[in-house]
Amino acid sequence: MTFWEMVDTYWLYYLVGRYPEGPLGGLALTLLLASAGLALAIPLGLLLGLARVSPWRWLSGPVTLLVYVVRGTPLLMVVFWAYFFLPSVTHVKTDQFTTMLLALVLFDGVYLAEIVRAGIQGLPRGQVEAARSLGLSYIETLRFVVLPQALRHMLPSLVNQFVTTIKDTSLGYIIGLTEVSQVATQINTLVFVFPTQIYLILGLTYFILCFGLSRVAFWLERRLAQRNSTSVKTQP
Amino acid sequence: MPGRLRVDNATIHSLTPVFDFSMLLSGPYHHMLVAGLVLSLQLLAVTLVFAVPLAVVVALLRLSHWAALRWLGAVFVEAIRNVPLLVHMLFWYFGIPELLPDPVKEWLYARNFEVVAAIVALTLYTAAYMAEDVRSGIRAVPHVQFEAARALGLSYLAAMQLVILPQALRIIVPPLISQTLNLWKNTSIATVIGTAELMYQAAKVETATFRSVEAFLFATVCYLSVSLAITGLATWFHHRYPVRAL
């Protein structure tokens, strides 16, 4: 089999797996997993981040502990716990997609919590004080003053987190999820003679996705910086 | 069905103790897990030894006067950071030996090539991240500091040693420690090419004994302890050598 015959035979399998006859796989599954993971992690990250900066000890304490534990553990460890241990508690075999999704949501949620915390703590203290002295409650201050500003500043970090999530989905390989790294390895096993080329293509695929997205983050960051500097200038 | 021996999960659970932590403290499984921990720590140490100098070189490339060298540094950093570590591992383990002549390939696979491939992948990946920290640390020291030192009569090396580096190191070391923490967690990915580190051994013990809780608890506690030690180091450094306002 020549290189181009291989490309011709397997390009569709690489992109979408056995879909539509069989389950979705390949690059499409990687993107789906990363998007779903981040989308579900955003509300979790917001809640955890708010809990982390909350003035109530009983709330911030356990959440801080959770953040430290998750940040000190490899993602693979979380994946293994979810894959091998969770079924013995729930008595339902969790499939690979759900396992990876759960691990990613927990992991991303905790990392986003730190981004949310930094976004909130990065605001000038006077903002909260002014809002509180105007008679807004703690929740109202968060809702109308803190979050709208903090979330805008978090946008570039969110895009960067999406890049990290795409890279993290590759760990699905280890539990046999047919995302793009797994599919590339399957093709390599079938074709056998082009390992270097196959893994270069795999690397290039991730590179195009992640580099493109990180450029978007960079552009967003610059635009935010410009916007901030102009808004400072127009202030009387 | 009377007379037929039924063995299901419930029976197994009633026959064996729910948790058996003694297997973690002695016996063959204890030795496997400890050997895994030792290899993980070795991966961490060896990678650090190679990655830090490489990161400094790449950072200097990125700060060079010549556009070609700056570009080379940027390509290194972006090409490596935008590809998952797992793919780096697969590439070095499966992709590279194919380019070598057959005898060399067989020689490699007959030895512990998976350890070498893991170290190469980890080194490049960690160096790409560290290079950015080193670069921003050096850039954070204002150039006038250097000019002032030279104007006071210090030589180039003396200015670097007495003025620039003491300030830059305070800025560079904390992010390098946090990259070390990432590296420690990343060593677990070496399991994908069969490097017998902690995660690999934990999975192997789990397969052999079906005691997922014990095996994974051991691994989790090990990962957390070392992570905590690295975080402690970062806190200590932050208090001992705080960044001074520039």
In short:
The complex is a heterodimer of chains A (236) and B (246). With 236 residues, chain A is an all-alpha fold. Chain A has helices at 3-16, 26-53, 57-71, 75-90, 96-121, 125-133, 138-168, 180-191, 195-234.
Walk me through the structure:
- The complex is a heterodimer of chains A (236) and B (246).
- Chain A has helices spanning 3-16, 26-53, 57-71, 75-90, 96-121, 125-133, 138-168, 180-191, 195-234.
- Chain A is an all-alpha fold and 236 residues long.
- The relative contact order of chain A is 0.13.
- Chain B starts with 8 loop residues before the first helix and ends in a 6-residue tail after the last helix.
- Chain B has a single domain (21-240), classed as MetI-like fold, CATH 1.10.3720.
- By secondary structure, chain B is mainly alpha-helical.
- The radius of gyration of chain B is 24 Å and the shape is flat.
- In chain B, helix 3 (28-62) runs antiparallel to helix 4 (67-81), helix 3 runs antiparallel to helix 10 and helix 4 (67-81) crosses helix 7.
- The chains are: A mainly alpha (236), B mainly alpha (246).
- The A-B interface holds A 68-69, 71-77, 80-81, 84-85, 88, 163, 166-168, 170-171, 173-174, 181, 184-185, 188, 195-196, 198-200, 202-203, 206-207, 209-211, 214 and B 78-79, 81-88, 90-91, 94-96, 98-99, 181, 185-186, 188-189, 191-192, 199, 202-203, 206, 212-213, 216, 219-220, 223-224, 227-228, 231.
